[in-house]
Amino acid sequence: MWSTFFVTDEEGRTVVPAGPGAVAAPGGAPQGAGAMSTLMTGRSTFGGNKRRRTTSTGHAMSEAQEGKIKLAFFVAIVGVVLTVLGMGTEFWVELSPPKSFYNNQTCLTAHYGLWKGCTKTLLVSDIDPERESCGPAELHGESNCTYFKFFTTGENAVMFQKTTTKNLNVAAAMLALFSLFLMVMGAICITMSLSKEIVFFLKPASVCFILSGLLVLVTLMVFQQSVLALLASDHTVPLHHALSWSVSCIGCAGAVLIVGGVLFLLLALPYSPWQRCLPQKDSSS
Length: 285
Known about the structure:
This protein is an alpha+beta fold. 44% of the residues lie in helices and 13% in strands. It contains 6 helices and 9 strands; from the N terminus they run E-E-H-H-E-E-E-E-E-E-H-H-E-H-H. The strands form 3 sheets. The chain has a 5-stranded antiparallel β-sheet with strand order 6-5-4-3-9. A two-stranded antiparallel ribbon has the order 1-2. A two-stranded antiparallel ribbon has the order 7-8. Strand 7 (158-159) and strand 8 form a beta hairpin. Helix 2 (63-87) runs antiparallel to helix 5 (245-268) and helix 3 (166-196) runs antiparallel to helix 4. It is elongated and about 95 Å long.
């Protein structure tokens, strides 16, 4: 006896393979042979449905656009790393009295950031003879670092008989933390966009990175105002102040984050801005 089996194609139709007595179709080929050819060409469910990437105008993204998103994400990650490096260090500003203010052998310098401040005792012989103030803080010496009590007891810090302004320092720290939160949210949106292949997540990611970059720059301005308020609190001790390398990291981080957010915004547009601004002429013209 001849046993038959059934195969279902991707449209849900049942296909019966050809048997020994298959009847030829008007085109000359047996019906069973046509079904088996359909099965062999991958039209049935045994072939599997491969995922297809659509263009950027659809719900998914093309491979070229995915590469551009990864490149822009790398730019944003560089900004995040610079931000974390700058906020985690205490070399935002250096305060240096004159070398001869205490004695002729040692002098005292200070440097602080958002979270803690450090004082360092340096040997006058190690300082450049042409330098009038004590420092720089990178020289070898005995250092003493303490965290600020702004966030625990609410006490102001005193450095060289000068008192910090608690409100400005706390505001700068809170802005920095909120900018880090926006960076994390932007990174989550980009990760979802790459994993789900959805271009829509690029828009909130661009907003998060642009706002985080702006907040980083605002943090710098608020911190600078806090330094000026510290210097104006007492004039009995002359101090030389200078912004250090942590501020440079934060400034570069803010600019890089804004550039990364703008790149994500351009990639989220349904058209290429370069083709709109510079339309290509036809070769026939």
